[in-house]
Amino acid sequence: MHSLASDIQRIRVPKGAVALWWLAQAGFVFxxxxxxxxxxxxxxxxxxxxxxxxxxxxxxxIDAEAVQADWLISSHEHLDHLDTDALPVxxxxxPGCRFAGSESxxxxxxxxxxxxxxxxxxxxxxxxxxxxxxIMTARADHGTLSPxxxxxxxxxxxxxxxxxxxxxxxxxxxxxLIDQKPDILVPCINGRFGNLNPEEAxxxxxxxxxxxxxxxxxxxxxxxNGDPEAFVQACVSRCPEVPVWLLRPGEGFICxxxxxxxxx
Length: 264
What we know:
Mean pLDDT: 96
Number of domains: 1
CATH architecture: 4-Layer Sandwich
Number of helices: 7
Number of strands: 14
Largest sheet: 8 strands, mixed
Radius of gyration: 17 Å
CATH topology: Metallo-beta-lactamase, Chain A
Strand content: 15-25%
CATH class: Alpha Beta
CATH superfamily: Ribonuclease Z/Hydroxyacylglutathione hydrolase-like
Structural class: alpha/beta
Order of helices and strands: HEEEHEHEHEEEEEHEHEHEE
Helix content: 10-25%
């Protein structure tokens, strides 16, 4: 049985494709055809339990010590998205890794000792080139909980992934990313702390009309809620033509312009 770290290392991504794995909660890993490895909102420690008493119910599929990354993106500063226990470990073991995040992430990067020349501020309604990945940003409607939180569109050339981050259903703010016609939609579905609930996430899916949807932000903390079956049924009702890919932590797939294949 392979470890996730070895799986990420051994996978060779075909031209015009991207490989992705779910880390549980809102965390993902992406690997490009040029072998760029990008981590997005990885939550790998128990820092949320230490800070708030929220016990993690899904084990991290990879240890922070095993992470090999070229980029790490934080959509906002909340601890289940910007893991202040895991990120110093990742930074120490990956001296070439750069950390890109919203405005609220910059002070946190400073506090945990990430050098200024390894930080990249992501502003809303902008486009950035992160190695061979183009990132488009939009404001995420996370209210007063995180006013600078971001939604993201990751463009891998022939495959585009829209990541809502933590947000309410605010179509005008999301529209610039929707207009890019993403192939994969990754919505939060937990319905608490101002986030999309299953019905709202399905409504967004019906509007975006992606080739597939992969929900996240469920089964990590009892306090966060999240019902993937309710999301599946809402999609069956609203957008039955869109396949729902429910991933277990550490599971992933390769997406090309024509197909999506599970990674074994």
